[in-house]
Amino acid sequence: MASGDQRAGRPPAGAGAGLRIGVVRATWNPEIVDRLAAGVERGLDELGAIHATEVTVPGCFEIPLAARLLAGSGQVDALVVIGAVIRGETTHYELVSGGAAQGVMAVQLETGVPVGFGLVTVENEEQALLRSEGPGGHNVGEDAACVAVAMALLARDFLAR
């Protein structure tokens, strides 16, 4: 797990003012995803970005399609995707986590809409809890919200040229 000094820097408070951020969240592993969602809200609030819309999908494998639909809607400047894939006894973990990651990457490259990747892919619930902590702790959802805002600012800067 990356420690605080190894994670990417955050945009300054208020830097995301006026940016419309959409959220796609999986409903599988709801306790973890609710904690990630709270982190997304903290990140967006700190940066002054607007939580424009939220879409829920059954699981992480469905996130890329929902992200593609939302990215193409013209309603958002960036997206945050959140979900939790916890390893089980089969190869399902690799298929879901890899497919979701590849699909989300394709969405940003195809649409030009940045996506903050807030999926936790972990070995067990304990690791998921450590990556979805409350205020002041490590929360992948909060990190993903900051990434979405940073990349939306970058995209806006280049589109303005």
Describe what this molecule looks like in 3D.
The chain has 161 residues and is α/β, with parallel strands linked by helices. It has 5 helices and 4 strands; from the N terminus they run E-H-E-H-E-H-E-H-H. The protein has helices spanning 30-47, 63-71, 92-111, 125-130, 140-159, and strands at residues 20-26, 50-57, 78-86, 115-122. A 4-stranded parallel sheet has the order 2-1-3-4, sandwiched between helices. Helix 1 links the parallel strand 1 (20-26) and strand 2. Helix 1 packs across helix 5 (140-159). The longest helix has 20 residues, at 92-111.
Q: Main traits of this protein?
A:
161 residues; alpha/beta; 4-stranded parallel beta sheet; 5 helices; 4 strands; globular
Brief synopsis:
By secondary structure, this protein is α/β, with parallel strands linked by helices. It is 45% helix and 20% strand.
List the helices and strands and how they pair.
Elements: E1 20-26, H1 30-47, E2 50-57, H2 63-71, E3 78-86, H3 92-111, E4 115-122, H4 125-130, H5 140-159
Parallel strand pairs: 1-2, 1-3, 3-4
Helix pairs in contact: 1-5, 2-3
